[in-house]
Structure to design on (326 residues):
């Protein structure tokens, strides 16, 4: 176990396989193939859980992003190892967890900055340059240290695509889940940034001005409603033209999915199947350095089961697409 400087966060390195899944004769589950903890050094894909909800609550979001990673791990292990996905290329590294509950924004100033530094430190220590990282859980605030890590690893600027109702480009007065990309833009981390599925009425005038001033590309969810065919063409054209020499980071904010248990629950958004299509299309055409799935906030037993299985579909779709590129 590794703790942050003030013990607000800890990192638990997984050490053993959870092989509690039921198996039938002639079957092999991913639980028998996946590697854990330090054995992830042998894997192409490294899965890391971040279980914290400080970032979302500092941004006025709902609590709960500190739950659910265990349900994702269980769901991934329970699927079949077969001709579509062997699983031996997958490693589950461990989990970064917050150790102190959020009470108020005034009492938690500086906590997200400490988390930024801790996430970056853990990634530097455990994730190799040639590996591909999958990060599950926590707030979208963690996009900032992930982008910094991708830039630092490649010694190049980063390309970022975000599927999100919100651009997460709020003012940079203090760190929270609403401003990871504005920090990254201001610090010159990003070569380009694009948002797909932006909700027109849920981004303020400051954000739209920043997007215009910084030449950030966006395509709204309202345009998806108006003409889905044109929207999909635009999506494919955009990712097809990305610079293959620069790292690509893909974010799927779970707030973008209708009725998904998340920190900003929405009745209007992409379906699970549409989200899978987004992931499968880009991952089968571009190598993605980091795949980030933040803002899930399951609370009840039923929500945990839904969240775990939904995210496992997204992770497996991503890996299958990337394998087709290798």
């Amino acid at each position: 176990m590794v703790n942050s400087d003030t013990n607000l966060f800890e990192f638990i390195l997984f050490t053993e396989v959870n092989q509690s899944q039921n198996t039938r004769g002639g079957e092999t589950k991913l639980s028998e193939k996946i590697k854990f903890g330090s054995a992830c050094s042998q894997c192409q894909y490294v899965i890391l859980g971040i279980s914290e909800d400080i970032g979302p609550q500092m941004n006025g979001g709902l609590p709960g992003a500190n739950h659910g990673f265990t349900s994702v791990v269980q769901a991934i292990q329970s699927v079949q190892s077969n001709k579509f996905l062997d699983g031996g290329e997958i490693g589950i590294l461990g989990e970064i967890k917050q150790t102190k509950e959020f009470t108020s924004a005034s009492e938690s100033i500086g906590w997200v900055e400490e988390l930024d530094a801790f996430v970056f430190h853990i990634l530097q220590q455990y994730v190799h340059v040639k590996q591909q990282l999958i990060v599950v859980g926590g707030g979208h605030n963690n996009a900032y240290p992930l982008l910094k890590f991708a830039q630092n690893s490649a010694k190049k600027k980063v390309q970022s695509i975000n599927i999100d109702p919100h651009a997460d480009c709020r003012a940079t007065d203090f760190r929270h889940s609403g401003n990871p990309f504005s920090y990254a833009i201001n610090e010159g981390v990003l070569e380009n940034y694009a948002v797909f599925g932006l909700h027109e009425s849920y981004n303020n005038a400051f954000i739209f001005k920043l997007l215009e001033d910084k030449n950030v590309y966006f395509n709204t969810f309202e345009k998806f409603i108006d003409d889905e065919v044109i929207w999909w063409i635009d999506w494919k054209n955009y990712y097809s033209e990305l610079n293959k020499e620069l790292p690509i980071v893909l974010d799927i904010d779970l707030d973008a999915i209708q009725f998904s248990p998340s920190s900003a629950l929405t009745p209007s958004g992409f379906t699970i199947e549409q989200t899978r299509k987004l992931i499968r299309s880009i991952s089968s055409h571009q190598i993605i350095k980091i795949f980030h799935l933040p803002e899930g906030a399951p609370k009840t037993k039923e929500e945990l089961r839904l969240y775990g299985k939904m995210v496992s579909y997204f992770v497996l779709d991503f890996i299958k697409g990337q394998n087709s590129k290798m």
